[in-house]
Amino acid sequence: MSDRPSGQTTEPTPETTPAAPAVSGPSVLGRALRWYALALFPAALVLAALAALGRLAAADALLAVLAAAAVTALLALAPLVDLSRLLRFVQELAQGAAPPTPEMRTHGVAAAAAFALSQMRREMRRALAASDRSARSMEDVFDALPDAVVMLDADHRVVRANMAARGLFGRSLTGRDVSGLVRHPPILEAIDQIEGGGRELEFSLPIPVERRFIVSIRPLPGDLAGNAAILISFHDITTIRRMEQMRADFVANASHELRTPLSSLIGFIDTLRGPAHDDAEARERFLGIMAEQAARMARLIEDLLSLSRIELNEHTQPSHAVDVRRVIASVIEGLEQKAAARNVTLAIAAPESLPAVRGEPDELTQVFQNLIENAVKYTLPDTEVTVSIAALERGPVNMPKEAQGPVVAVAVRDRGEGIAQEHIPRLTERFYRVDSARSRKMGGTGLGLAIVKHVMSRHRGVLTIDSSLGLGSVFTAYLPAAAAATAGTDAPPQRIGRPA
Ligand code: ADP
Known about the structure:
Elements: H1 28-52, H2 58-94, H3 109-144, E1 148-152, E2 158-161, H4 163-169, H5 185-192, E3 199-205, E4 211-219, E5 230-236, H6 238-273, H7 280-313, E6 320-322, H8 324-341, E7 345-349, E8 353-359, H9 361-378, E9 384-392, E10 407-413, H10 436-441, H11 448-458, E11 462-468, E12 472-488
Parallel strand pairs: 7-9
Antiparallel strand pairs: 1-2, 1-5, 3-4, 4-5, 6-8, 8-12, 9-10, 10-12, 11-12
Bound molecules: adenosine-5'-diphosphate (ADP).
């Protein structure tokens, strides 16, 4: 029951507080005895005076002094010892030590004061721990900020830098001059002129890969820890700038792609109105070309619309269970004529039973239409295009995290000229073509593989491209299998190896 003032008030001795400097001065007992002597002094003086005046026998006076001493000792010595202990306790507290609460012999004022003091010390410790915790959590928040943040003192030396800043400029930043971090003159100028107010400017860090930032430089209110006077934050806008560039490129590319057939249409219209007005044979020929160009424009617009539709829904994974084999069979049926025109055979190799995939049937039709049509276009005449379907325990390592389970792999293999390695990573970019003239001649829009990539991403799948010059290419689509849904027969899914 240490919450009540008592003769036995105790509190655990603090372990963490550093040892206090020794308190000098008389011991507790010495001080108590001195006060005791002081308390006894007036009575002794009066008795001595009475004895000296002959009013009291010396022996009686001595007896009286001894009696007074005994009574005073009985009444005052214990409170005096307590008082002295309290005084020592207070002195030690004042010197920043962590003395144990003194044990008191009485229940008087000294005991109450000692109890109150130790309560106060406990509260102060609690408040200190809370402020310590709050300082630590501020530090954690500062470190967790996604933007790099650096604080400088008035001499432009780093006093604090968060984790993002250390990642950007190096580990040991404290104490370094800001010009060792950024050498961009407008930023250094803005720091020099901080009295004129804060500024925001754009800045690029070329190494190791170019990154662009909006840098904000602000003065801080005075009296901050570590003399922080200026706050600089770096907000990474690399992705935003890249997106802006991509959008601008895309508009330029799309306009260019549309402008070519449009100019050709305008040219033929002029010719038909003018020189070829009465030439029936030329009119027929020109109208044929015009129809082809108009169809090209229509295809392009259709592909552009598909792309934007898919992009719009890319964050929501489709939920239908789709029988991929059925989708592929119908795509192959639609391409038979085109294949026959080049004497290309279309073959499908699939196990008896396959799990369904989680998908959107129309979008998957578009994926296989684009992949198989490309194979038919780019394979050599008189060869075979093979579509192999297989159920696998898991897809390649770059499958998204949420699609780490079983997959259905569809590999479309052609026997064409193949694609040089340097082109492969860029094939799924919009309008990227290995041979633009050839692609256009074959009616390609340059958007087919971009559409495939976006559909795959919406389906949480992956497209891989393997190609060998002179041998041909294999485009493989890995799609997550739909949970517990099996397409085809009721037999359990047959696991086979990677499609050849
Ligand atoms: P396109 O409409 O030009 O076919 P795609 O986006 O479908 O556009 O393909 C982009 C480019 O990738 C094509 O222009 C072509 O150069 C190359 N490509 C695609 N599939 C194949 C393939 N099976 N064999 C060789 N090259 C291919």
